[in-house]
Amino acid sequence: MTACALVMGVDWATHDCYIQVTSEAVGIDAEPFNAALESSPTLRLLLLRYVHC
After folding, report:
1. DSSP per residue over 1-53, as a string?
2. Nearest to residue 36, comparing CAs of 12, 10, 3, 11?
3. How many CB atoms lie within 10 A of CB 6?
4. Is 7 exposed, middle or buried (0-12, 13-18, 19+ CB in 10 A)?
5. Is the Cβ–Cβ distance between 17 and 2 less than 8 Å?
6. Which burial class, exposed, middle or buried, applies to 34 when counting CB atoms under 10 A from its CB (0-12, 13-18, 19+)?
7. How far apart are CA 16 and CA 1, in angstroms?
8. How high is the pLDDT of residue 53?
9. What confidence score (pLDDT) does residue 1 get?
10. φ and ψ of 21, to 5 deg
11. Does the pTM exceed 0.85?
């Protein structure tokens, strides 16, 4: 799942993300990410603006 779906308030995504080259990626589980969104209205607003673009 991507963070975009969580920011928009749903618990499912219509697509997946894959890394197809040798690289590193940073991830976070949905529960701590949702907790951060709930505890920080500023973070939620910032990410909603990013998702909208």
Report:
1. --HHHHHTT-S--S------SS-------HHHHHHHHHH-HHHHHHHHHHHH-
2. 3
3. 19
4. buried
5. yes
6. middle
7. 6
8. 67
9. 59
10. -130, 165
11. no
Token duo for residue 29? 């589980």
User: Tokens standing for 34?
Assistant: 């949702």
Asked if 12 and 5 count as a contact pair (C-beta separation under 8 A), the reply is: yes
Q: What are phi and psi of 23, to 5 degrees?
A: -165, -175
Structure tokens at 1: 């799942």
For residue 52 the two structure tokens come to 């909208």
Tell me the C-alpha distance between 9 and 26, whole Å: 21
Alpha-carbon gap, residue 37 to 15, rounded angstroms = 21
